[in-house]
Amino acid sequence: MKSNNRWPLILILLFAAVLVLKRAQPAGPQVPLPPMMASGWIGPSVNDEDLRGKLVVVDFFATWCGPCRAALPQLAKLRAQYKDNRDVVFVSLTDESEKDKPLLEELISETEGFDWPVGYGAGVMFDAVGVRGIPDLILFGRDGMSVYRGHEVSGLAQALGLELENPQR
Description:
Low-confidence stretches: 13-26
Shape: globular
CATH architecture: 3-Layer(aba) Sandwich
Strand order of the largest sheet: 1-4-3-2-5-6
Order of helices and strands: HEHEHEHEHEEH
Helix content: 40-55%
Oligomer: single chain
Number of domains: 1
CATH superfamily: Glutaredoxin
């Protein structure tokens, strides 16, 4: 009879393992980090060579997107946690044009802690990684392949933590 009492525990552990593994996987197929292409930059421009071998967080957003704007303070808090870690790079990209640069600069100045580069006129980047809606947060691993994709900063934070805990991933 005692062996039958173990089945509920075994099933619970298996279910928990499936949930953990599922959460750690990227949403959708993996995509490679394409060369950074934008018409212009607010903050320092991003050099592809500077991204090689690093964890790269790319936030695809727009100033007119309410959920994008709402996620920025959370993204800024996450960025603050890794500000001194040279192996983690944050970049935001928008397909908005140079005429929208004042709106972008206003949004950046209104968002406490927003201190990472923003590329505008980056529609080609949206196409290259298959952005279908925004916000779209993608974490690219050290090998340049996506390891997380979603719209929740909490999911991004979890994936980033896992990548930093397991440098061989």
